[in-house]
Amino acid sequence: AGRSAGRALLQRARSRAVRRAPRRDNRSVYYAAELLDGLRVFAHDQNLASEERFEEETARLDAALEQAPAGSASNSAIQRALDAVAQDRVDSQVAATATLEYYYTAKAVLGSQSTIPDCSFVACGDHADCVPADAGVRCQCKPCYIGDGFTCRPVPCAPRTLGSAAPVRGPLPAAYPVVRRQAPGQVGEVQLAVFGQDSEPQLAVVFRDISNGNRASLVIGRLNDMEVDFGNWHPLSTSAAFGLSIAGFPNGRLMLSFRIGLLMNSTSYVMGGVVNRSGDLTARLSAPRPLARGQVESLVMVPLSRSRAVCLHGEGETGRPRGAPRSGGTAQLVEVLPDAVTRVIGRYRFAEGWRVERISATALSPTSLVAAYRAQRCDDPASPESAVSHELAAQWIGMARDGLLIDPHPAGLETERTHMLARDVALVAQDTFAYSYESQREGVAKVAVVHVNNVSHRMTVIGGPEVIARGAVRFLHSVSLPAGAASPMTLTMFQRPQESCFAEVCRVSPEGRLAGCRGIAWADQEIQELSVGRLPDARLAVAYVSMRGTLLYQLLTPLETDAIPG
Prior knowledge:
single chain, alpha+beta, Methylamine Dehydrogenase, Chain H, 3 domains, elongated
């Protein structure tokens, strides 16, 4: 009713404003503004007249109600009339507000500097917020966008801290299957995934709780402007679990993995999850199923289309002769079904004859990925091929129907060097990724830009490597940043001993050259481990573990402020 009344009032107001507005040449720049001013005057007059009429009618009905016997038919009829008048009054106020919103929004779009009283009187554009101004309010584009608040276009950006770190804390649980604590005591490792639709993104955090026997748990989070609301913990294991991984999908499904046991006696499990649509931040989980045995490192999961993920791991200890080296890597294609059950579609080998470790990976498209890993020769160390280092290998893997295609020719970076340890990869632009890594012998961390031919899948280093940090690093993580219409960027987060966690951002030219590298101090403390996910609005969600074992999260908004020389 309120909307109908609003449309009717707008139509009458526009007609009245047109009749009152002075006749001008159609080229007059003032005609629209004067028409809007006439609309506002009419809306104001109409609202005053309506309020006076409602007051008179309410007073008349109140007087009649006093004369009507209680419980009589006339008393009931008058009460219904009073209710109808009250509803009509609300509808009229809604219509008046809609008219004023149209007036203030149209004036602001035309460039008027007139004061907007509050946010209920303006309709900001997509990717914009209503914010306080010197007098009243105004529309302002969100971070990573630029414009007048009504039309906002994306621009390149880099992160800065948005608020202080906060604990990952959920509400008090009601009953099983959630654990009976608000927050974990001391956390050993953490992994984060961003999933769901772009309009309603959610976070999934898995962590190992040292204070609870090293058991693994899952918690779901929902974005609430500048904060995250977390649900209760879902236990994933009944015994100590290590090597946690998680992948999320747009349809609300999750894939999780963890390892139970040590070395030859270890088993890596995978399980699926489906987030409940009730909005209570809970998930329905399937039973864990064995996926690999004898692993010493975490499985790496890369989500692709159709609720499928590629699970990457080196060859395990189980099933090989004592003392023989592990050989090759394995890629398993796994799907999460609607009932949260996981299905292994296929198992594939790569880099056979090489010991594969320190795997990292990132999606290049909904159906392809690049896997980065350290490969060392297993058979004859004196062979000519062993003289070439493959410690910075990269391999293309694609999904085709119900299987995987693995390019047989992995690329190699800095093939003359050895002792390459930590590494990570992240998408920079179409068919282009950043390869960040630690060169232990040189005592530096570097980043290179690699292009993948979308037909042959051959890889070429087109930028770098550039040194981004000196000294030992505890970890490093590459993060994809939105490029907008300008040059893309690389972002690498790393932790040096006894320093606050740092990040290095470099611009990437259209030819792939790295330039303008600079440091960003995003955290105010040293941390043990972190995991990063990019939100649809270009912010970054970071879950990390402090040196005291506290599980924290922090949102980074992509603005180029707070950058300091690297």
